[in-house]
Amino acid sequence: MINFEYVISGMTMGMSDMYNKVEVLEPYADTFNEKVTHIDNKYSKTFLNKIINYCKVNNVKLSVSSWDEEVYHYLQSQDHVTMLGQFPELSLFTERADDGRHPHRKHYQYFVNEIVKTL
């Protein structure tokens, strides 16, 4: 089905049935997923490279991390960045945010404590 990990504004405007009716969504699922993958692979890396290059040119120390494993590994492969610890796996704690899906405060506190150790 469709990957709604990312919000792509404009693509879903005026299409509220797509959220509720599988038969309406199904013909568009591949297109949405392809666009999400394309955006993630091309534009995110371009944006990250702009930040990295700006900091390099201006002699700014850049410390980075990511909750996303692919992005984290990409950042590790870049020169002129200082890697911080990666955001913890969701499975580290059983507690979740109020929506029941997102990380709990414990995840964020753990992440901050790990960063403090490296600074």
Could you explain the architecture of this structure?
By secondary structure, the protein is mostly helical. It has helices at residues 17-20, 22-57, 69-76, 105-118; strands at 63-64, 82-83. The protein is flat, with a radius of gyration of 18 Å. The protein starts with 16 loop residues before the first helix and ends with a helix.
Distance between the termini: 42 Å
Flag low-confidence runs: 1-15
**Percent of residues in helices:** 40-55%
Give the averaged pLDDT, no decimals: 78
Number of helices: 4
Relevant terms:
4 helices; mainly alpha; 2 strands; two-stranded parallel sheet; 119 residues; 52% helix
Map the helices and strands.
Elements: H1 17-20, H2 22-57, E1 63-64, H3 69-76, E2 82-83, H4 105-118
Parallel strand pairs: 1-2
Describe the structure concisely.
The chain is mainly alpha-helical. It contains four helices and two strands, in the order H-H-E-H-E-H. The relative contact order is 0.09.
